Structures are given as structure tokens and as C-alpha cells.
Amino acid sequence: MSQGPLRVNGRDCAVQAAAGTSLLTVLRNDLGLNGPKYGCGLGQCGACTVLVDGVAARSCALPVEGVAGREVTTLEGLGTRDALHPVQQAFVATQAAQCGYCLNGMVMTTVALLRRTPQPTEAQARAALSHNLCRCGTHLEILAAVQAAAQAMAERA
């Protein structure tokens, strides 16, 4: 049994989990955070993406003990219903979701991209999101959301 504080969305959370338990399992089952989704369980689809110290990471393939002492941010930690994060707002404004299953990964990956590249080209956005799967085909709207978020964040600065 692995035990210890886990820092999620700015809060310390006491967690008990067997060694090797995925971060995704703890986030969803123990902490009740439903932003990250279970997709493939292999770290290949991106639905489970969270930020670990600001870097996009696949929580289904990351053992919970691997994030000890690090800051984990989920979709729920970005903004609130009344004050969405600029990336969340851009995805809403551009109608970048259909079924919404990939949305968590797309948003979290976009947040990480804009932290390291505040004004990405379309090619940079495509490359950053290339490992996030979307079956509904809203790729053009997603790319528009990335650019809209970049612009909104630049205007805020």
C-alpha cells in the first residue's frame, strides 16, 4: 500500500493506493475528479491527460507514486463554471467538442502548449495535439480554439 499526500489542483489530498495504481484511477475513483477520462489505458489516446508540474502527462500510464511531491492539475483545476480558463473558454466559443470525450486531453495539452509556446503556429498546434485522438472530427474547431486561446491569453498579459 502506497500512502501519502498527493497535491492535486492546489490541495493536499491523503491517498492510500496499492503500488503501481495509476494516477487516473486515484483521481477518478478516490478523489472524484471526472475531467480525465479512461480511454485506452495505454497512454496513447490522451483522454486522461493531466498536467504534472505544468507538463502534459498521461495519467493512465503514470503510477500515483510517480507524482509524489509534484503538482497535479486536472481539468477541474483550471477554472470554474463562472470563470473558465481562457483555453476552456476558447473551446466553448469555437464549439470544439462534439461527444466531448477527447476534450479533457485536448484542453490540457493546449494549456501545456501555450505555457511553453504562447503564440504557436498551426503546425506547432497540430504537432502538440497529434497524439490526442478525436473520433468526431472536430479537428479544425480544435485548432481554431488553440489560436483563440493564444490570442485571449496574449491580450490578458
Automatic annotation (TrEMBL):
Coiled coil: none annotated. Residues 2-78 form the 2Fe-2S ferredoxin-type domain. Keywords: 2Fe-2S, Iron, Iron-sulfur, Metal-binding, Oxidoreductase. PROSITE patterns: 2FE2S_FER_1, 2FE2S_FER_2. InterPro entries: 2Fe-2S-bd (IPR002888), 2Fe-2S-bd_dom_sf (IPR036884), 2Fe-2S_ferredoxin-like_sf (IPR036010), 2Fe-2S_ferredoxin-type (IPR001041), 2Fe2S_fd_BS (IPR006058), Beta-grasp_dom_sf (IPR012675), Diverse_Oxidoreductases (IPR051452). Pfam families: Fer2, Fer2_2. It comes from the Bacteria. This is (2Fe-2S)-binding protein.
